[in-house]
Design brief:
Layout: H1 2-15, H2 18-26, E1 29-34, E2 37-42, H3 49-57, H4 67-86, H5 92-106, H6 125-142, H7 155-159, H8 165-202, E3 207-212, E4 215-221, H9 222-247, E5 249-250, H10 267-279, E6 284-285, H11 289-294, H12 297-324, E7 334-335, H13 353-376, E8 379-380, E9 383-384, H14 387-411, E10 417-418, H15 420-429, H16 438-441, H17 443-456, H18 460-467, H19 472-478, H20 481-484
Parallel strand pairs: 5-6
Antiparallel strand pairs: 1-2, 3-4, 7-10, 8-9
Helix pairs in contact: 3-6, 4-5, 4-6, 4-8, 4-10, 5-6, 6-8, 8-9, 8-14, 9-12, 12-13, 12-14, 13-14, 17-18
Length: 497
């Protein structure tokens, strides 16, 4: 077992940022203390004893919290210090130093000091203490004191005042997700929706063969297909927006078990207001602290909406692959932008790389949702014990969906060219057009015509005229493929055969 952990530590060391590795190589150590005793902490590191123990305890994946989450925890600590100062619970000098240090966390200046693995204590206590220690030590420096001098700024007594990991981490999941949705995903989806609508309009005059079961079906307009894709994205936006009011509810103020022990009765309300001022997002104190800390139902709900979006993107991307297939032996209905050589052995081959990337993103998000669902079910009594993995998977889903949507627009959708003549020719020659004849000659006779046309390699028009079933001018109206895409009875007649 010792050998295993040594091996893992070596791997993690190799994955560490170059700056950190360089500092580790040249650093000495300072001694910090916690409830379990003394701990050696690298001199360069802003974290303290509890973080160092977690570094040593969890050399598992090398996967750290996303920067968006670290930003959220910085916002919480900033606003907590501000509120505690206003409530008269925190000395102004200490509060200002904590706020200044927290601002550096928010701005990403101290990211290298958040080294902890996602796979840690289920409450995320290690990461909350990581933030408390980094901010406390940085605040000490701001006040002219030495790192680790808890008499000046204490990570628990001052930075964590009025808080618990059990309300901070759930709140940060909500805050970071709300920020990522507002700043990344929703704008990307609006952009995608607009691009699809524009293509729907551009392609509205192009009639093609519809397909059900991957088999020929009645004609549709290419623009109608793209309008369907646009609607999928529009509905995805609506689903995500519908979750937001619950995402804006924050657990802060509940402290350890939801009762609000060791915090001011107004803390939850005031910190939510302060966070709203800082972010422009209408955060508010949760309506029930016991629910907010013991469950992560809103995160599960949001993950479900993200999964539904992923399913929509999968469908859209896969359709684009099919329509682009060929170019000589496939459907060849559209041409996607040529972005890179597609084969190391077949010269001139160009593959649909962007749709394929989007499909893989969709797969990952669907997998992430399974993790979030299982993690969401891991609440026992007053606490969920899988918070870090919820945070990681939820934020990853938001970010990769946002990035994939942007790429899909910029490198694929905007550059699609339709092979209009090819699609229209195939649609006009397709035996499935006999469907339009059924109001006039009946289903069975229409089926016979299809069979004869396919057996003799003739068009439906040729067979109908050959059999003398309809007059030529009437048949021309019935077999108008554009009118077939508009619904109803093509020639305005509801029967006759």
């Amino acid at each position: 077992m010792v050998e295993f952990f040594s091996f893992i530590s070596k791997i993690l060391s190799e994955r560490a940022p170059k700056q950190i590795k360089r500092r580790k190589a040249m650093s000495d150590y300072r001694v910090e203390k916690d409830a379990l005793g003394e701990v050696k902490v690298p001199t360069w590191a802003l974290w303290g004893a509890q973080t160092q123990r977690a570094v040593e305890n969890f050399p598992i994946s090398g996967i750290r919290f996303p920067q968006t989450f670290i930003r959220a925890i910085g916002l919480v600590k900033y606003c907590a210090a501000k509120v505690n100062k206003e409530l008269g619970l925190l000395d102004e000098k200490k509060a200002e130093a904590i706020m200044e240090a927290s601002k550096e966390v928010i701005e990403g200046k101290l990211d290298e000091h958040f080294p902890l693995d996602i796979f840690q204590t289920g409450s995320g206590t290690s990461t909350n203490m990581n933030a408390n220690e980094v901010i406390a030590n940085r605040a000490c420096e701001i006040l002219g004191a030495q790192r680790g001098d808890k008499t000046v700024v204490h990570p628990n007594d001052h930075v964590n005042l009025g808080q618990s990991s059990n309300d901070v981490i759930p709140a940060c999941i909500h805050i970071s997700s709300a920020l990522a949705l507002k700043e990344k995903l929703l704008p990307a989806l609006e952009k995608l929706h607009k691009a699809l609508l524009e293509k729907a309009k551009e392609f509205d005059d192009i009639v093609k063969t519809g397909r059900t079961h991957l088999m020929d079906a009645m004609p549709v307009r290419l623009g109608q297909e793209f309008s369907g894709y646009a609607s999928q994205i529009e509905l995805a936006i609506e689903r995500i927006n519908s979750v937001l009011p619950r995402l804006y509810e924050l657990a802060l103020g509940g402290t350890a078990v939801g009762t609000g022990i060791n915090t001011h009765p107004e803390f939850g309300k005031r910190i939510a207001e302060a966070l709203s001022q800082e972010t422009g997002i209408p955060f508010k104190e949760t309506r029930n602290h016991f629910s907010a800390q013991a469950t992560m139902d809103t995160a599960v709900e949001l993950s479900g909406a993200l999964k539904t979006l992923a399913v929509a993107l999968y469908k859209i991307a896969n359709d684009l692959r099919w329509m682009n297939s060929g170019p000589q032996a496939g459907l060849a209905e559209i041409r996607l932008p040529a972005l890179q050589p597609g084969s190391s052995i077949m010269p001139g081959k160009i593959n649909p790389v962007i749709p394929e990337a989007v499909i893989m993103v969709s797969m990952q998000v669907i997998g992430n949702d399974s993790v979030v669902t299982l993690a969401g079910a891991s609440g026992n009594f007053e606490l969920n014990v899988a918070l870090p993995v919820i945070a990681r998977n939820l934020l990853e889903s938001i970010m990769i969906l946002a990035n994939a949507s942007e790429v899909l627009v910029d490198k694929c959708i905007n550059g699609i060219v339709a092979n209009k003549e090819h699609m229209q020719r195939l649609a006009e020659q397709n035996a499935i057009l006999a469907t339009a004849l059924t109001p006039y000659i009946g289903y069975d006779k229409a089926a016979q015509i299809v069979k004869k046309a396919m057996a003799e390699n003739k068009t439906i028009r040729e067979v109908v005229l050959e059999l003398g079933l309809m007059k030529e001018d009437e048949l021309d109206k019935v077999l108008d493929i554009r009118k077939m895409t508009e619904g109803g009875f093509v020639a305005g007649v509801s029967g006759g055969g």
